[in-house]
Design goal:
The protein folds into two domains: 109 residues, Ferredoxin thioredoxin reductase catalytic beta subunit (Ferredoxin Thioredoxin Reductase, Alpha-Beta Complex); 37 residues, Single Sheet (Rubrerythrin, domain 2), CATH 2.20.28.10. It is globular and about 50 Å long. The protein is 37% helix and 8% strand. The relative contact order is 0.11. The chain is mostly helical and 179 residues long. A three-stranded antiparallel β-sheet has the order 4-3-5, with no helix packed on it. A two-stranded antiparallel sheet has the order 1-2. The longest helix has 18 residues. The structure holds iron/sulfur cluster. The site of iron/sulfur cluster has 13 residues, from loops.
């Protein structure tokens, strides 16, 4: 039966398990961890598949998506807020991704506050962040610090360095502030 004929909510167990396995592989390869509670992670994998069918992209299963790509860009999984939430709380907003400490059972996963701003504030923020054509990019203030992996040279701009380098898998302690 085609996806259209059966509706977006009808997802087979096999599809959910396959997607969960794929998310697991991709997370571990990039130095991230999925929630070790398999049933819970599969529930979220199902939500991602439903949204992918509805909108054509995997909008966050725990947030209200609009179906307008430009409005939902920040909540396409993994969302823009995942890394800061993992650093601060050890889980992403939905709880699909967890820190190493949570994955190893050293820290408990809990529900966390929403970091995403309301739509009107997000729009204002985007407008304010739009580059001024007269401005030289090199001298514009960077919105995030840039971190460099001292092992392989991987660079990333984010609040804190990643827990594990996605390229060489060196730990956070091997990162230095680059800019
Ligand atoms: S909160 Fe978690 S599951 Fe939701 S989009 Fe962000 S990373 Fe994905």
């Amino acid at each position: 039966m085609s996806d259209e004929a059966r509706g977006p909510e009808v997802i087979t167990q096999e599809e959910i398990e396959r997607h969960h396995q794929r998310l697991l592989r991709e997370a571990e390869a990039a130095g991230y961890h999925l929630n070790p509670d398999v049933d819970f992670a599969r529930l979220l994998a199902r939500g991602l598949l439903i949204n992918a069918r509805r909108h054509g992209y995997q909008a966050c299963p725990c947030r209200l998506s609009t179906g307008v790509p430009a409005e939902d860009r920040d909540i396409v999984c993994p969302c823009d807020y995942r890394d800061d939430d993992l650093d601060e709380h050890g889980v992403c907003y939905c709880g699909l991704y967890v820190s190493g400490a949570v994955a190893r059972g050293e820290q408990e996963a809990c529900s966390i506050p929403e970091r995403r701003m309301p739509a009107d504030q997000r729009r204002q923020g985007t407008a304010a962040a739009s580059p001024d054509e007269s401005e030289v990019p090199a001298v514009r203030a960077l919105p995030h610090p840039v971190w460099r992996c001292q092992v392989c040279g991987y660079l990333c701009a984010r609040t804190r360095p990643p827990e594990i380098c996605p390229i060489c898998r060196a730990g956070r302690e091997r990162f230095e502030r680059f800019m």
